[in-house]
Specification:
69 residues, mainly alpha, 0% strand
Length: 69
């Protein structure tokens, strides 16, 4: 059996930590650069197969004003 040790996180000073969040975010932002937006290509309905929708879900969508008749 493996003995897993669980350590409690260090106490957090909320006043100091919350005040430092904007600076922390600004320093981390360059590390998470967002790629240029890539528009998804439409998929032909002929390629969509094997999808099953439960009858209750189909009735729910049918009853919704935006998705119904």
């Amino acid at each position: 059996m493996t003995n897993l040790e669980v350590h409690a996180p260090a106490p957090v000073d909320l006043e100091g930590e919350l005040a430092s969040l904007p600076g922390d975010g600004a320093r981390m932002a360059p590390h998470w650069a967002v790629p240029d937006r890539i528009a998804p290509r439409p998929v032909s309905p002929a390629l969509i197969h094997g999808v099953s929708v439960p009858l209750a879900s189909a009735r729910l969508l049918d009853a919704m004003e935006d998705y119904g008749d």
